[in-house]
Write a structure and sequence with these properties.
Layout: H1 3-19, H2 28-46, H3 64-67, E1 74-78, H4 82-85, H5 87-93, E2 96-99, H6 105-108, H7 124-135, E3 139-146, H8 166-183, E4 190-195, H9 212-216, H10 221-235, E5 240-245, H11 251-266, E6 273-276, E7 279-281, H12 288-299, E8 304-313, H13 327-346, E9 351-356, H14 381-388
Parallel strand pairs: 1-2, 1-9, 2-3, 3-4, 4-5, 5-6, 6-8, 7-8, 8-9
Length: 392
């Protein structure tokens, strides 16, 4: 019997039971998700790896973003390849898209300095993302304007190759932000304005020391961060502006981030939200308490909270170790996904978006099968677990 026939049979029996008033608390949605989850488990038990995608034959697979539309938008990081090769999954399951690399400074800025570099900004890939979103009724998160990684070294130097003064770098940063945000004004609903400036290497240092931004602004790092948000706000007053960081749920780093955010807020800086990167693991990190406490703590600052880069790998350490998940691993991964989505749902009044960092396992930046669709585009245990998290 096919899954569709099983569903139809169960629907009839459920309707009959409800008509007879013998199962008042029976939820068809819950039964359907449970049934599909069991079917997937049975399929996986029959063979270690499904070679032929089942995606095309399971007609009842629900749209993830539509199932969550009453809670918060569900998004995904895409790139110039996946908007073509994975458009079926993107269009069906995600409302929001984020350019994985196509809107980062390294992509937009030219490869070398000239005095007219602003006239040579490369918006080709970014424009493609906007066009794709417009044609497929998606909203767009912009990522990222100010980051110590993936910014060309010349951006921090003058025409003689000497390091820019803080004032000169500030001017260059502001004109770059206004050019980029201004180009996409009204087309990008939220921007990661500043990314990963807080140190996680020391109990004493607030700002990371390997950042060219922090090195040039040492002792006054807050000044360029403030200026970045003000420039983005001037370029597009309607866009929501976020600070974004990894490890943002770890208590020590969280405390440092909150200290910085409090200073920005005290200065009247136009910051709207905190982006919690969700590069997490199912071997124990982070704890349920740390995730929940972080959402509450950031929200208590008066900020929107978004989970901006969600993927759940096997190992907390050894992020880039190649891993093929066993059946037991996939079960643990699903349990972790369910746990975190139950937290998100509980605090849906504080969360304005959840974005997966990649579509399928084969295009993830972490080689540990951390996403909810496998390399054949099949929904994994984790996909069904996220739907199960909805309960009734």
């Amino acid at each position: 019997m096919t899954i569709i026939k099983l569903e139809k049979t169960l629907k009839i029996n459920t309707a009959y039971c409800q008509q007879k008033n013998g199962c008042k608390n029976l939820s068809w949605k819950r039964i359907k998700y449970f049934l599909l989850f069991v079917f997937l488990l049975l399929s996986l038990s029959a063979c270690d790896f499904i070679q032929k995608p089942d995606y095309e034959t399971i007609e009842a697979i629900p749209s993830l973003w539509k199932e969550y539309k009453e809670h918060f938008p569900i998004g995904v990081a895409v790139n110039a390849t996946t908007i073509n090769t994975h458009s079926d999954l993107i269009e069906k399951h995600f409302l929001s898209i984020t350019a994985e690399n196509e809107m980062k400074p390294q992509t937009i800025l030219p490869g070398y300095y000239t005095s007219d570099y602003l006239d040579r900004l490369n918006f080709t890939q970014g424009d493609r993302m906007i066009k794709y979103a417009r044609e497929n009724d998606k909203i767009v998160r912009g990522h990222v304007l100010v980051w110590h990684e993936q910014t060309p070294e010349w951006f921090f130097k003058d025409e003689k190759g000497e390091e820019l003064s803080p004032e000169a770098l500030l001017e260059r940063m502001e004109e770059y932000i206004k050019a980029v945000v201004g180009r996409y004004k009204g087309q990008i609903y939220a921007w990661d304005v500043v990314n990963e400036v807080i140190s996680d290497d020391s109990d004493e240092e607030t700002y990371r020391t390997n950042s060219r931004w922090n090195q040039i602004f040492k002792g006054r790092e807050i000044d360029y961060i403030e200026a970045a948000f003000r420039a983005a706000k001037e370029a597009d007053p309607e866009a929501k502006l976020f600070y974004n960081d990894y490890g943002a749920v770890s208590p020590k780093k969280r405390a440092k981030i909150i200290s910085m955010l409090e200073e920005l807020i005290a200065r009247g800086v136009p910051i709207d939200g905190m982006g919690i990167q969700g590069h997490w693991a199912f071997d124990g990190w982070p704890s349920k308490k740390d995730i929940e406490d972080s959402i509450i703590d950031y929200s208590n600052l008066g900020l929107d909270v978004q989970i901006t880069e969600l993927d759940i790998r096997k190992h907390t350490g050894e992020m880039f170790k190649d891993v093929t998940l066993s059946k037991a691993d996939k079960k643990k991964q699903a349990e972790k996904y369910k746990e975190v989505f139950e937290i998100f749902i509980k605090h849906r009044d504080k969360i304005s978006g959840v974005t997966f960092w990649g579509v399928t396992d084969d295009n993830s930046w972490i080689p540990q099968e951390p996403l909810i669709f496998d390399r054949n585009k099949n929904p994994k245990h984790a996909f069904w677990a996220i739907l199960e998290a909805l309960g009734e």
